[in-house]
Amino acid sequence: MFQFAVIAVALPLLGTAAIVLAACVSDDRLAALHLPTGSRAYRRIALIFTTMTFAVTLGSTITDLALGPRGPEPFGGLFALVTAAAWLPVIYVGAERDRKRPAMLYGLLLLLEAVFLGLFFTDDSLLFCLLLEASTLLLFLLISGWGGQEGESVARKFLVYNLAADLFVLIAILGLVVARARMSTEATTGLKYDLSYSLSTLTQDVPRWSTDEIGAQEYWRHARRWLLAALVFGLVIKTPLAPFHTWFSGAVSEGPLCAGLALMGAGGRVSTYALIRVAGPLWGDLGTMGDLLVAIAVLGAMYQSLLALAHGDLRKLSAHASLSLTAIAIAGIFAQQLPGTIGGVLLALGGGLASTLLFFAFGLLELRFETRDLSVLEGIWRRMPHLSSALVIAVFSLIGIPALVGFAGLYPVLAALFAYEWLGALLAMIAGLILAWSLFWMLERVVFSPQAAVDGTAVPPTAARSNDLLPMELWLIAPLVAGIIFVGIRPQAVAHLIDVSIRIASFTP
Amino acid sequence: MTTEPIVAGAIVALPAAILAAFGLGALVVARVSKPDLVCAVICAAALILGGAALGATQIQPNSGAGSDAPPTPGAGIGAGNPANAIRPYLLEDPLSQSASWFALGLGLLVAIAAGDGESRRVGRRYALLLLSLAGACLAAVVNDLFLAVIAIELASLPSTLLLFIERDAPGAHAAAVRSFALNLLALAILLAAACLVGSAFGTTNFEELRAALPQAAVMRHARSVAVASSTTGEMCCVLLLSGLGIHLLAAPFQLAAGEIFDGAKLWGVGLTALFPRGAALLLMIRVFVQGPPRLHGTAQTLLTAVGLLTILVGALLAVWQVRIRRLLAFFVVFQSGLILLALAGACCERARPVAAPWLTWDVLGGVGSACFCFAVDSFALVGFVALVASRRRSDRPIDELQQVAEAVRDNKATAFTACVLLLSLAGVPPLAGYWPRVAILRTILSISFPPEHGFLPHQNVNYVLVAMAVGAGLILLTAVSLAFVKKMLLDEVETAHVAVLATGIDSASRRQKRAAALGLCAALATVVLGLFPDPATRMIARGTADEEVIRQTSADRAHLSTPGKPSRRHRGEDEDDI
Lengths: 509, 578
Fold this sequence. Notes:
By secondary structure, chain A is mainly alpha-helical. Chain A is built from 20 helices and no strands. Chain A has helices at residues 2-24, 27-32, 38-67, 73-92, 102-121, 125-146, 151-187, 199-212, 214-238, 246-254, 257-283, 288-310, 314-334, 338-369, 385-399, 405-420, 422-447, 461-465, 471-489, 491-506. The longest helix of chain A has 37 residues, at 151-187. Chain A is globular and about 70 Å long. Chain A starts with a helix and ends with a helix. Chain B contains 26 helices and no strands. Chain B is mostly helical. In chain B, helix 8 (172-201) packs antiparallel against helix 12 (231-248) and helix 17 packs across helix 24.
């Protein structure tokens, strides 16, 4: 597993180095060697390294599925696999803005991939915080440097929210390190009081000592309140749950497509991962704080669903749909029951795949028709059957149709919420229904509407057909579709992996 | 007291004496023809001789590397020498040695960056640099408050003189006058503080001050450590913090930092921001952290309040700046706030070692974090200043941020280098500036209330709020620096500017290229240190470790590792009963 992780993180870094080298070679020399020049060269390099990274992360997950988990890492490996699968479209849609400083654009995208993969693979809490902040800075540069007219102001908002979240997480983790070091003096006589930064050590030692030792219990009773408050608050901003969500839709709609996809595929998953990996083992019985968090998450899900219903902008629609689903997943995690946690993880992973597919399909529509207005795009089914199919799969997965990953996640989450508080489950179901309504309405209008032309005039079928997905694009969405269907059909394989990993991480027997 | 040990002990001040003598010599020589060359030779000779003298007075390295065995203070020149026992004016310990070496290294870098400009002016710069450096080296070894006042004035007056000498910028004269007035004020306050300390405690010797009152070892479990300070002691603390705060650029004692930096040349910014502040930092460590144990509580409170204010002033004012030197001034002010908070943490560690049981020779404490922050940011600042100065042309000033961005962005390597250095100054990961900030945040978060009823010392939640304020400041500085980075890296270059700059590049002098190379080296070091921080962290931890604290935490460890000993909880109860 370790080797897989190192290779997976090293490959995008090598890709960045290759792009820097290519940028140092003149176009004439590249042309003489019959190699692509300019932005095409950089994009090709980035795609090659991203594909290799995806292959490595896939190999890692298959190994874990075959041999079973031996540590908490496979849990992060699943998130890394979703990130690597999402990164193929991310690089592809970089073409949208690569007329301006292409080498830097693709270099930053590869660096960002390495950072996200490192986040999911690392066991070092300081490195985790460092990578969290690095991902924020890289996304800021992408949004402000290659964004639209409002890119700069949106990027500034993104930066302030995310840096605040990152610093809350950093402070909480440093506090946890200090707390563990102090508690170790009480709990383990003769142990060298080291400052351990290992996530596994922190999440295993602190809960164990706080139940075994009276002194440590007393200390943890005081420290737990502010530590968890800071950690959860940071992650709630990072997710983002309402009312801290405004940065997300702005960044997705005004930033470049590649940044939006990166946020959908990986950025939005980081906080879910951190909640389960770091906060989950520590919080014990949340009490009224748990009720409050479930309420915020469920109400946030409803609010995001309503926003998705109200928006006529394709990018904002997909952003709010993704946020609504993430909020339901978080509600399942805060319900503090194992089915809810596993369902939340499945929903987060499935949401990552389906949201990426939906946003990628919307992005391709935007690139082809140069609009993202829902009212303008109509009836693409007959002209673009492959793209329409991708949209339909993504929507079906997001709203929880059986045999797709959304269902596999949504069902245990709702079950856990019912067991926790029936009202929360009811509200979550209503949120899901509103989301389904908004997405079906979008499908009905964009895909199945009888009108056959964008501008109202008839388009010849042959000419229209040429707008459909290219073979390359089909290859890029294949991993996403395969993931959605595989986990939908065989959720128990992945659920078992998540279950055992979480138990190991949290030292639960 | 005989004179023999005093003379033997005075050898530790030899590097400072050499630097001061050569500095005065260079000031005289600056009147001859081609003074820059002669003064450069004098400066190089002074640095080499200063380094040699420092090497000769080197204390024995820690033989128990990786263990808890402490370095042996005074094992160098004075091992077994009565000079060590008395040390009326000067002292030698790992901190003084590390600080002196660091000052010499930094002096070398500043000297490399100083070479650009008219010949006589460059000669004077070298002379003033040597004098300021002498002050910093003296501040590292002083053991007496009055001598400390002389050292810090020696470190800071040259930067004020430089402002008077190089009065080209529109606001330079006003900046020089303000700087001079503030220096006089600081001198008056520090002298008053020294007199008050002398009358209240009967001595101004640091070691005697420490030994005159109950040691922290006796008091470490008692809440009274935080509250037992007398009014006179509190007044001493306030006066000392005010005087040293002016030199450290801590708010509210130094509100004119922006104007002073703006009136200075870029090189002068480096001189003003480094040696006087370094000397002030060293003296704060001696006075507050290693000072009388009874005053640790007062010092901790004062340092926290001033540090918090300084951080907020630095971060908020940095947001509005459009001129590069003013921006750097507020970056430096913010860094001073971080240093003060780290020292507050160090006071707590000193007062209650039981609250920081993880401190060893390899782990950064509050003092180590403060010194790490100062060291890393100093290198980044010198590199950035040298790099920006290397882009200056006679037909194009570089005063405003936009002008700097235009000056550097035509050359990718320069633009990247400037970005790396600026981001490191803001503490952005994964650059070197990130790690000291993490260490300082950890120090702040480890500040605790004293243990009660035998339980562990529990977290002081007020300091969590302080850490969050630090976080807010870091966010503001990061946003400011990223906006500037975007200007340098991502904004389109206007064609007219490219033409002008291309001409300028051809005419760049050899010295400017040397300064640019210095900036590049600093950026590379920043990246390498950011990716592999452990060796530097360990080195600084060993150089700045608080022997007193570590001895007590080691004693705790030894006590607990002995079979049959009662747990800390039970011991605490026993002590409470007593």
